[in-house]
């Protein structure tokens, strides 16, 4: 049924031109209410390069709205350069768009929000939430450690060094309580997409962001796959791919857990777990031997904790059947990540990790 609206918007001192404009606005409003769709062109300005990868380039831009409204967004521009022809590009972009539209509906705090998927003269662009923060690859550097040491007040630096972030063997590392907090946020995000039959497929430090609020977010779902329709190109980083993926097997929720396990080991150890591997063969061997050399890789405050070592081993197990059953079990199940936090609480060693991270990250501007 069509609705009827009555407006009294013409004050007594208006001019005929004002009356005409008011009626035009009323007509436009009525047509908008009666229509079945809306369309307009969004404009993005001040594009700033954020990063590049195998799929294309990511920019920070500002989307302009009416009356001076602007919103910072991330724009992932998918490159057609590596496709054999435009048709192959179009087919793969249709797959990416289908997965992106499903991820957009999940709306989980630990997943990147997807706003839109558009085409500009045939080139596809994913419009996403811009995350104000740092990815783990940026944070796990000597530059971040030195900036923390020089920019924080001495008392705050001592606290950060004792509780949050400290020197490791070849790069800085997170202290166990903070590393597990980041892990738990990522597990919650993974559980959300896995429940929808989607796997991320390319978890690595560069794809985990720490917001300035202290919350971790999984980003870059351009490589995500629908388990029910996994055809199409596969993009993943060998150093963080599960052994079965490296051997040509399918990307599964269990493979995501292994990738996240490698990220956890790196956060705890202060060194990439496979930094000495130079070839795919060496990388494959290193992954199969990681469980055996885990305790020598981890620092004493980690290797001496049976629960932490167990958690790492269950995530990185070479055999997928020996990993946690799913992301939720890895977080909340027996001897999962939550159990370690409970252990810290019982020992009066726990901290308000979100707040600690927020206060620290605010100083890294």
From TrEMBL:
Signal peptide: none
Domain of life, source organism: Bacteria
Keywords for this protein: ATP-binding, Kinase, Nucleotide-binding, Serine/threonine-protein kinase, Transferase
Molecular function GO terms recorded: ATP binding; protein serine/threonine kinase activity
UniProt domain Protein kinase: residue ranges: 44-344
InterPro entries from the UniProt entry: Atg1-like (IPR045269), Kinase-like_dom_sf (IPR011009), Prot_kinase_dom (IPR000719), Ser/Thr_kinase_AS (IPR008271)
GO cellular component: autophagosome; cytosol; membrane; phagophore assembly site
A matching Pfam family: Pkinase
PANTHER family attached to this UniProt entry: NON-SPECIFIC SERINE_THREONINE PROTEIN KINASE, SERINE/THREONINE-PROTEIN KINASE UNC-51-RELATED
Protein name: Serine/threonine protein kinase
Organism name: Fimbriiglobus ruber
